[in-house]
Amino acid sequence: RAKSEGRGRWRFFEPAMDAAMQLRRALEIELRRALLLGEFELYYQPIVDVASRHVTGLEALLRWRHPERGLVPPDAFIPLAEEIGLIVPIGEWVLARACADAAGWPGAPRVAVNLSPAQFASRGLVEVVEAALRDSGLDPTRLELEITETVMLQDSQATLQTLHRLKALGLRIAMDDFGTGYSSLSYLQRFPFDKVKIDRSFTSELGLSRQSDAIVQAVTDLCAGLDMVTTAEGVETENQLQTLSQRGCREAQGFLFSRPQPAASVPEMLRSLSDETGPHGAGRDEPG
Ligand code: C2E
Ligand code: MG
Ligand code: MG
Ligand code: MG
Does any ligand 1 atom lie closer than 6 A to the CB of residue 125? Predict the structure, then answer.
């Protein structure tokens, strides 16, 4: 048959391709099943005010509790979920879950939810966010949405309109991973961000590289001038925190304060962070 002839011709290349495709296909099926069976979980990591060390926010971070593989981090499945469009229903679940969790922690700070570019571009995003707020009863001022620079590359008129519609709900918008993508300073002026999160790649070099210090200083100054808060991601050492403080960075997030924790541990995490004068938690592990 023609088909088997065709296969024969490709024999050299096919096994590797086949294996990769099969893995991908298997992961796709498993991901769809995970959503149906409720295998996703949210972990939360605190965001801290540099000057007072008070917790100002909690970032919701997606995990997949896989029946055999254990706790799977988002980088292992979000790119595929994004590619096959499954990130839209997954993201809807994340929004609903995060708002419901936050509403159940009265007095807790704001919750930050990551939005993927595909989710941002999807029809009905604003309605999905509205429904999550309404169903949970969460005060919109306690919700922050994090988007990356990739979103700005899409149709900027549509993006701008969506951002304004979201902001009209009363929530806040943060630009995530600033400095990694196709960063343009004009984005900061054109789009209505409340916050800019400086990527971990800059934080990790703080105090070690004059260039990173200068970039953090410049972003912090610029954001201050535009009335935006700056948050440094991936803060792991007291040294980095001190440099951030000297550079005028308002907020910090990282293992120095706490690793992401399961929802059930959040009240205890908030208690212990407010009890202690200094940061802690560097040694705390994410429970598997
Ligand atoms: P992100 O939004 O930039 O989240 C911060 C990531 O840095 C988290 O990784 C967090 O665990 C990690 N991190 C925090 N502090 C430190 C530190 O001090 N040192 C180091 N080495 N890492 C630190 P995680 O949870 O693996 O998430 C990775 C990315 O996956 C996120 O980056 C975000 O882009 C994406 N993501 C997570 N949850 C969601 C979600 O619900 N929806 C979407 N669309 N994307 C998500
Ligand atoms: Mg984020
Ligand atoms: Mg980030
Ligand atoms: Mg990141």
Answer: no
